[in-house]
Amino acid sequence: MPARLAAPAWPARWPEGCGRCSRAETGPARSDSVREVAATRDDAAEIAEEYRMFARQEARGRSAPYQALAESAAGDAVVVSFVASLPYAKRSPNLLFAAARYLLGTAPGLTQLRNLVSVSRAELTEVILSHRTQTNEPARCATLLPALAQLPQPLALIEVGASAGLTLLVDHYSYDYAGHRLAGRDPQAPTLRCEPRGPIPLPAELPEVAWRAGLDLNPLDVNDADDMRWLSCLVWPGEGDRQERLALAIASARRDPPAVHRGDLLTDLPALAAQAPADATLVVYHTSVLTYVAPGERWRFFTAVADLDAAWLSNEVPGLVPGVPSTAREQSGDGRGARGRVQQSGDGRGARGWEQQSAALLVRDGRTPLAYTDPHGTWLRWLG
Questions:
Q1: pLDDT tens for residues 28-86?
Q2: 12: confidence class by pLDDT, cuts 50, 70, 90
Q3: Are 147 and 106 in contact (CB under 8 A)?
Q4: Cis ω on the peptide bond leading into residue 154 (within 30° of 0)?
């Protein structure tokens, strides 16, 4: 078992500037109509910039249709006005585009999106308010695998923000790291291809998983057709074989469903951890989750994980786990641009600059950065 984590020795106050990404999750207090009007004007400019940032930093080079749509939507007063009418937690391009796709049955262009906003406003709003961004990309397992393989075996896995639990099935998938291949337990599960960059400690065999469980406020059921339809709508158009990979991962999960429990990462994590077998290394991990957690609650979560006899792997945008001595943070102050993206000099498109700009940072035990990772698992740059 890993040594008990020390209590996090972080500042007593969340660093200035970190509230911006969480502001979109929690929303500001509104007390009078004058403030509401002023905020709406400010929101329009902020929303337009958010959508342009999504186009430049997230969709660019990954999804040409969504890059074009986000750029167009940022300049469209009808779309921006609609987004401004939504709660802060519901304004992201990911959620809007997925909701439109859910209603249309296909990825929207600007004309279709404007038509939905104008003609089917109530239906679009209902889908947005009743759904969450719960992208469950199985290929993220390829970025976690080297870190998991370094831990004492067997493992007891808890994924926080597990969605449908597809990234709990790390030992089911097969892997191909530019010719370094590993066969998974399920021969019908997808092969996850990940480009290794740097001296990655690629394992000779897959980790042994003795127990696994997920925790999510709104878990998706792999046997529910509508849940899986929504999960499919969260896949961006133009991203190669992601839809096929998702379908194969869902089929694997249906053959051996992972346990995903409805619960809160603060109040329900300790009880779930207590169910793990004592003779396995408990691992708590999460990918692209902390953006949706308010800063104060992040502190409580970090403390809760530190109170467990567990290894902790966080795979988040740089800056969301404070106090981590990462190259990314040293290069640009606190390392956080809009939505936590790492900013570089110039246009940020050098070999390392571009990848870091759009990367997550894999960190062990809240203090040791291990690797930059592609948010969708297509490459991994080890820092060791």
A1: 333 333 333 334 667 899 999 999 999 998 899 889 999 999 999 999 999 999 999 99
A2: very low
A3: no
A4: yes
How far is residue 220's CA from residue 146's CA, in Å, rounded to a whole number?
A: 27
Assigned domain for 261 exists: yes
- Determine contact, residues 347/337, Cβ cutoff 8 Å: no
Residue (of 61, 58, 85) closest to 70 by Cα position = 58
Closest CA relative to residue 135, chosen from 215, 52, 50, 246: 246
Strand partners, 308: none
Cα atoms in the Cβ-side hemisphere of radius 13 Å centred on 364: 18
Domain of residue 200, CATH code: 3.40.50
| Distance set, CA 56 to CA 17, 42, 63, 70 (Å) | 21, 21, 11, 9
Q: How far apart are the C-alpha atoms of 337 and 343, rounded to whole Å?
A: 6
Please list, in sequence order, all residues whose beta carbon lies within 8 angstroms of the beta carbon of residue 187, skipping any fewer than 6 positions away: 174
User: Nearest-5° angle of CA 111, CA 74, CA 320?
Assistant: 130
Q: Looking at 69, 101, 130, which one is the last position of a domain? A: 130
**Nearest-angstrom CA–CA distance, 381 and 326:** 13
At 334-383, the pLDDT tens digits run 333 333 333 332 333 333 443 445 789 999 999 899 999 998 899 999 99
Q: Which two tokens stand for residue 99?
A: 């909701």
CA distance 157 to 27: 33
- Distance separating alpha carbons of residues 258 and 237, to the nearest angstrom: 27
Q: Give the side-chain half-sphere CA count within 13 A for 319.
A: 29
- Please list, in sequence order, all residues whose beta carbon lies within 8 angstroms of the beta carbon of residue 175, skipping any fewer than 6 positions away: 142, 145, 181, 182, 184, 191, 192, 193, 194, 206
Model confidence pTM above 0.70: yes
Q: What is the pLDDT of residue 17?
A: 29
For tokens 């304004």, the residue is 91
Interaxial angle between packed helices 77-84 and 64-74, expressed in degrees from 0 to 180 and rounded to the nearest 10: 90
The pair of structure tokens assigned to 72 is 């167009």
Q: Are the beta carbons of 291 and 316 closer than 8 angstroms?
A: yes
> Do 106 and 151 fall within a single domain?
no
Q: How far apart are the first and last CA of the chain?
A: 23
Q: Which of 75, 105, 130 is the last residue of a domain?
A: 130
